[in-house]
Structure formats: C-alpha cells, structure tokens
Specification:
Layout lengths: L6 H25 L8 H13 L3 H20 L1 H23 L8 H21 L7 H9 L6 H20 L1 H23 L4 E8 L2 H12 L4 E6 L6 E10 L3 H10 L4 E8 L11
Antiparallel strand pairs: 1-3, 1-4, 2-3
Helix pairs in contact: 1-4, 1-5, 2-3, 2-7, 3-4, 3-6, 5-8, 6-7, 7-8, 9-10
C-alpha cells in the first residue's frame, strides 16, 4: 500500500491530472471550435466527430482502447494504468469543456499559436509523468522496432495523412493551420518533458587528460569521467575526458582545451535529458 501511495506516485498522478485537463481545454475550447486538428488518434476522433456529430470525448476513449490493450505487451501494466487514467480523464474533461460552448478566441492564427502551446504543455506533462494521451505512440514504438524508422518519423507520417484528409474535407487552409499547430505543439512538448536547460556532452581525446580534467574542475567546477582509449595509428594510451556542461560554458571549455599542451580532439553533442547527479562544485 505504501508503494502505491508514495510521494513519487502522487506527484506523477498529479502531473497526469494537470496535463489531461490542460490538453482537454486546448482541444475543446481553442482548437476544435476553429477546425484546427490535432494529430494521431485524437485527430482522427476530431474528424469523425465533426462529420458524425458523435461526442469527441467518447470517440477518443473508444478508439484508443485497442491501442491500450496492445500497449500492455510493449510497455507493461504500469504504463497501461497511467495511460488509461490520463486518457479517460482527458476524454471526460473534453466533454465537460465542450458543454460550456466557450471559445477562447475566434482568430485562427491565435488559436493555432495558443492552442499549440496549451496542448503541448498538457501532453508534455502527461508524457513526463509516464502516461500517454494517444495510442499512435504505442503503435509507432512497435513499428520502429521492425522497420528502419524512428518513432518520430512514424508519427509524423501518420499525422501527415490526417492533416491531408482534414485539408481535403474542411479546406486546405485548415490542414495547413493544423500542421503549423502540430510543430508548435511538438516543440512545447520537448520543453515541458525534457526542460529548457540547453546541455551539452563533451568528449575530449587527449594525451594530457589529467591536466585537462584538473583545469576543467578548477575553472568550470565540472567533474569529469575518464574513459581509457588507444590511438589506432599511434598505438598510444589516451584518456578520453567526458563531461557535461551548459551551452554558456562551451566557449570557456574550448579555451581550456586549447591552453593545455599536446594535441587533442573534441566532440560536442546535444543532451536531451540528464538522469542522476549533474555535479558541479560550489
């Protein structure tokens, strides 16, 4: 019982709740009244709802049920519980918000921008808490393991079909507005799910790794990790220095590398997320 109601799980379900509510508001009171369509199963539900008059919230849950069942094999029971909770709440709140017949704005451009931001914040919170609002991601994860395509590429291809259909039925401008909204939403999801900290990982191959590590620690306050290596041509033992820094520290890091005697090779990469201690001395 304690494991179920521990602090982490309570925070997780609070984030799922907030995310589902915010996403439902974006869908029911910003996007749908302006015929701006989301992607994935939600987008399919919006199109069917517009054509048939069936309640949007009910369609979202019903169409997602097969994907949830399928998702147990891939993601496990814990994911199913969180996904089911967030989807049902999202559906219920969509119905509630729709019943008020309130539209945040009638300006299509504002609806695209703010609808994309609100939807991105909601979906990002749900994803960060380990849930899911759309079964498309489950299918994309399954297909990515069997075809040479990433999850993002599969979802984009699926959404392009949805936006093409929406554009054909409701007008080309609606399909194009929906595509713009999708890119805004995707960017906001990344910010909410991962964070705004623009972090870089750095690997420095040097024959003078210990002096380099000492300078990085003293001047930047960053700890480093040594990885042992050997030059293919020279056959010399080398220390590969690995550290994580912010974008603002890149210039100073390059200066330190240049000032340390001996040849070196530096590779700098983006870091999408850091799990664990990101140590910096005081």
């Amino acid at each position: 019982m304690d494991k179920v109601f521990n602090k982490d799980n309570l925070i997780s379900f609070l984030m799922l709740t907030m995310g589902a509510v915010v996403a439902a508001f974006a869908l029911a009171n910003v996007l749908s009244p302006n015929n701006i369509f989301d992607g994935g199963i939600v987008g399919v539900s919006m199109i069917i709802s517009r054509l048939s008059g069936i309640n949007l919230g009910i369609l979202v849950v019903v169409i997602n049920i097969p994907f949830l069942i399928f998702g147990i094999r891939i993601m496990g029971l814990r994911f199913l519980v969180k996904a089911a909770y967030s989807m049902v709440l999202f559906s219920a709140m969509t119905t509630v918000f729709e019943s008020y017949h309130y539209t945040l704005t009638d300006d299509v451009f504002l609806a695209v921008c703010f609808g994309g931001v609100f939807l991105g914040c909601g979906v990002g919170l749900v994803l960060r808490a380990g849930g899911c609002l759309d079964g498309t991601e489950i299918v994309a994860l399954f297909l990515s393991k069997r075809f040479i395509m990433s999850v993002g590429q599969i979802i984009l291809a699926f959404n392009m079909v949805i936006y093409s259909v929406a554009g054909f039925i409701f007008g080309l401008d609606k399909g194009m507005y929906s595509l713009v909204m999708y890119f805004i939403t995707s960017k906001v999801i990344d910010i909410v799910e991962v964070g705004m900290d623009d972090t870089k990982s750095v690997m420095i191959i040097s024959g003078n790794g210990h002096e380099l590590a000492e300078r990085i620690f003293k001047e930047l306050g960053r700890t480093v990790t040594f990885i042992r290596g050997e030059g293919y041509i020279s056959k010399e033992d080398m220390n590969i220095v690995y550290c994580v820094v912010t974008r603002a520290e890149i210039f100073e890091l390059k200066r330190i590398v240049k000032s340390v005697p001996g040849s070196s090779f530096t590779a700098i990469s983006d870091v999408s997320e850091i799990v664990g201690n990101h140590i910096k001395s005081a």
